[in-house]
Write a structure and sequence with these properties.
- This protein is α+β, with helices and mostly antiparallel strands and about 170 residues long.
- The chain folds into 2 domains: about 110 residues, Winged helix-like DNA-binding domain superfamily/Winged helix DNA-binding domain (Arc Repressor Mutant, subunit A, Orthogonal Bundle); about 55 residues, Ferric-uptake regulator, C-terminal dimerisarion domain (Dna Ligase, domain 1), CATH 3.30.1490.
- It has 6 helices and 5 strands; from the N terminus they run ααααββββαβα.
- The chain has a 3-stranded mixed sheet with strand order 4-3-5, with no helix packed on it.
- Strand 1 and strand 2 form a beta hairpin.
- Helix 1 crosses helix 2 and helix 2 crosses helix 3.
- The protein is globular and about 55 Å long.
- The chain starts with a helix and ends with a helix.
- Bound molecules: zinc ion (ZN) (3 copies).
- The site of one zinc ion has 3 residues, from loops.
């Protein structure tokens, strides 16, 4: 059934095109944001950010090296990837998931509100990550609780493992 197969290919390409355009729009927004902050989103920085946005998953620095090579045909050494990720983190365009040692594009790049402390819901099946923001009062009581136990907190960022909606349904 050649026609059916062809139409599937076409719709997949269309889907891919929509994602690419979405990623481009977010990267352009990030570029403007950086300009406002007096820093530059160079081509390589753009590529790493686009790779994270495009994959839609949390990736390690080494996975990003592979992704750039396969998808962009560009070789970026791991050391540079780490440096670029550090820059993107400083601009709050990317977050680091400390427990899994991976990086994810911020879900609020095109938002205008102030960025709050994030919590991340990590799907153990498909590795997709959802960034959420708990209410300030919830964060406040968490901090108070931790303070009371005489524990020095690095960051109130939470990383929560589980199954996302679509993986949960497949069970
Ligand atoms: Zn964020
Ligand atoms: Zn937002
Ligand atoms: Zn999932």
């Amino acid at each position: 059934m050649v026609p059916t197969h062809q139409s599937q290919v076409i719709s997949l390409n269309l889907f891919e095109k929509i994602i690419v355009r979405k990623v481009q729009a977010i990267v352009e927004h990030a570029e403007q944001q950086c300009k406002k902050n007096g820093v530059r989103l160079t081509e390589k920085r753009k590529h790493i950010l686009a790779a994270l946005l495009h994959s839609g998953k949390a990736l390690s620095a080494y996975e990003l090296v592979g992704y750039c090579k396969e998808q962009l045909g560009e070789t970026i050494p791991a050391m540079s990837v780490y440096r670029i990720l550090g820059f993107l983190q400083s601009q709050q365009l990317v977050h680091k998931l400390d427990l899994v040692n991976k990086y994810i594009a911020c879900a609020h790049i095109t938002c205008h509100h102030k960025h709050a402390v994030s919590q991340f819901l990590i799907c153990k099946q498909c590795q997709r990550v959802k960034e959420i923001n708990l209410r300030d009062s919830v964060i406040h009581s968490l901090l108070q609780e931790v303070y009371d136990t005489d524990f020095e907190l690095d960051s109130p960022q939470l990383e929560i493992n589980g199954l996302c909606g679509s993986c949960g349904k497949m069970k």
